[in-house]
Amino acid sequence: MEIDLRRLRAFVALAEEGNVTRAAERLGIQQPPLTRLLRGLEADLGVLLMQRLPRGIRPTEAGKALLEEARVILVRADAVEAIVRRAAQGEQGRLAVGFTSSAALHPFVPVVLRAFRERRPGVSVILEEAGTVELVDALLHEQLDAAFVRSPVGTIPGIAVDDVLDEQMLVALPAGHPLAIDIDQALPLSDLAREAFIFYRRSSGPGLYDSILAACRETGFSPTVVQEAPRLPATLSLVAAGLGISIVPASMRRLGGEGITYRALKDCAGLSAPLHLATRKDNRAPALMEFRRLVQRMRQDHS
Question: What is the pTM of this model?
Answer without folding.
Answer: 0.69
